[in-house]
């Protein structure tokens, strides 16, 4: 495996009016190409600050950020702008142009970049298919559900073929159905376009299919591993006041009452299988 992003000893201190805030404390981590990398933690843990450091939207106070082997701190502004284009950012508020159709929203960044209209349209239609919205190409954002709007926003960011997309709580404003649709679209883009995904969420269920997960608390990375490794440690997660997926919690409680099942059960199917055995 090859890392796309590496952070070494990254710290970030904000100098606010009422004193200093250490938002990130000595963080070292590596994100592999093609992975889905989940970041979980309570509000204020430092997740947004961390992902803003990945493309120097926020400049670390200390440490190094290396993307594709280039240390970002040593790049000129022009080189940095170029590197930034390789990392697309998506937030909880869907950034869409309300006067443009879905198709034209996705074409927009390509037009700005001077891509031929027919090429832009081709790419946009291709992305609409991946995020399962082909039938909405001519609709306007106001005619879409929240989950559909967010999928259009994600397709728009994907138009420029970033190597990595960073999603900062992309499902926070959505109902369960919308959350599911957005998550499926993200996984589909990861598979079909091989884009690396960094996903911040406070819904634990959303990272059970990730390749790696880190847990942040008070500016530190306090846990790191596969979802199975992380969710095997129910008591530690509780210590950090994080919810555990319902099925995992149920399995943990069954185990505590003497039922012989393994740690780190993540799905109903796994639980049923374990119980049947
Ligand atoms: P999370 O995304 O996990 O909710 P954040 O990265 O937004 O956490 O914030 C981490 C800490 O840094 C919080 O205490 C927050 O108040 C503080 N913080 C974030 N941005 C700023 C800023 N621009 N100025 C001062 N403090 C900030």
Record the SSE blueprint.
Blueprint: E1 3-16, E2 19-32, E3 36-41, H1 47-53, E4 62-67, E5 70-71, H2 77-85, E6 87-90, H3 102-112, H4 117-130, H5 146-158, E7 164-168, H6 176-193, E8 196-200, E9 212-217, E10 220-225, H7 227-231, H8 234-239, H9 246-256, H10 268-276
Parallel strand pairs: 3-8, 3-9, 6-7, 7-8
Antiparallel strand pairs: 1-2, 1-4, 4-5, 9-10
The structure holds adenosine-5'-diphosphate.
The site of adenosine-5'-diphosphate (ADP) has 12 residues, from strand 1, strand 2 and helix 1.
Walkthrough of the structure:
By secondary structure, this protein is α/β, with parallel strands linked by helices. The protein is 37% helix and 25% strand. A six-stranded mixed beta sheet has the order 6-7-8-3-9-10, sandwiched between helices. The chain starts with a strand and ends with a helix. Adenosine-5'-diphosphate binds next to strand 1, strand 2 and helix 1.
What is the CA–CA distance across the termini?
Answer: 35 Å
What percentage of residues falls in helices of 4 or more residues?
A: 25-40%
- Tell me, rounded to a whole number, the average pLDDT: 94
Globally, the shape reads globular
Number of DSSP-assigned strands? 10
Bound small molecules, by name, code or SMILES, are: adenosine-5'-diphosphate
Query: What count of helical segments does DSSP give?
Result: 10
**Major β-sheet strand ordering:** 6-7-8-3-9-10
């Amino acid at each position: 495996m090859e890392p796309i992003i590496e952070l070494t000893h990254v710290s970030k201190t904000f100098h606010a009016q009422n004193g200093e805030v250490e938002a990130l404390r000595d963080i070292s981590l590596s994100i592999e190409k093609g992975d889905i990398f989940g970041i979980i933690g309570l509000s204020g843990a430092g997740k947004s600050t961390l992902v803003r450091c990945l493309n120097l939207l926020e400049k670390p106070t200390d440490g190094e950020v290396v993307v594709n082997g280039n240390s970002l701190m040593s790049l000129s502004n022009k080189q940095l702008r170029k590197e930034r284009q390789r990392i697309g950012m998506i937030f909880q508020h869907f950034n869409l142009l309300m006067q443009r159709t879905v198709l034209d929203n996705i074409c927009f960044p390509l037009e700005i970049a001077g891509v031929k209209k027919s090429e832009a349209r081709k790419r946009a239609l291709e992305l609409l298919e991946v995020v399962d919205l082909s039938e909405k190409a001519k609709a306007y954002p106001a005619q879409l559900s929240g989950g559909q709007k967010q999928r259009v926003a994600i397709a728009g960011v994907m138009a420029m073929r970033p190597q990595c997309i960073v999603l900062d709580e992309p499902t926070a404003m959505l109902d369960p159905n919308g959350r599911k649709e957005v998550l499926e679209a993200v996984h589909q883009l990861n598979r079909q376009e091989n884009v690396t995904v960094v996903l911040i969420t406070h819904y634990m269920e959303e990272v059970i299919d990730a390749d790696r997960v880190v847990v942040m608390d008070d500016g530190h990375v306090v846990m790191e591993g596969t979802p199975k490794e992380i969710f095997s440690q129910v008591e530690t997660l509780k210590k950090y006041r994080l919810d555990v997926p319902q099925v995992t919690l149920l399995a943990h409680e069954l185990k505590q009452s003497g039922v012989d099942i393994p740690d780190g059960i993540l799905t109903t199917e796994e639980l049923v299988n374990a119980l049947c055995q």
